[in-house]
Amino acid sequence: MLGRPDDARLLRLLLEAAEGSAVLIRRVCACLSNKQIVKILEECCARRDMLAARTRRQLADLEAPPADAEPPGLPTACFSLPAELEAEGDEHGPLLERLAACDDQLAGRLAEAASPADLSAQVRLMIDEATELFALNAKRFRRIVAQANRKRSDEAAA
């Protein structure tokens, strides 16, 4: 294996984060009818798909052994979508809040795992970029919810 000692472990964590969150976003998209929000979510998902592909290439370049012995690095609850949120259907506020919470958790977990790790500069840069991507998307999702709430309260006041 080439690279620094923790490169493969952190890349696997990053791959798990990118793929798991992309699946969650697709599930949320299936619940929504607001085409504008769905388009934003699809763009976020496309960025995660590109991140996952880049991470897979990096893992292949490292010639890292399979991670069979490693436990999953992220809690599965991070990628879950409670049935009651799915059942709410087109009420996008709680769904987007769930995505924001997931991205906050992913950004925190990646940053926490990377800080003490012995990483190559290239892998550290990938982790930093992914952490920033997740943090920015969490803010973006919350901003959409805040705008919808303002619009709803303005309509109620009128």
Major β-sheet, in short?
none
Low-pLDDT residue spans? none
Query: Helical element count?
Result: 5
SS-based structural class? mainly alpha
Tell me the strand percentage band: under 5%
| Cα distance spanning the termini | 65 Å
Query: What best-fitting shape do the alpha-carbon axes yield?
Result: elongated
Helix % is over 70%
The rounded Rg comes to 17 Å
Average residue pLDDT: 86
Characterization of the model:
The structure is a single chain. The protein has helices spanning 7-31, 35-62, 83-87, 92-114, 121-157. It is mainly α. Helix 1 packs parallel to helix 5 (121-157) and helix 2 (35-62) runs antiparallel to helix 5.
Q: Any key phrases for this structure?
A:
mainly alpha, 158 residues
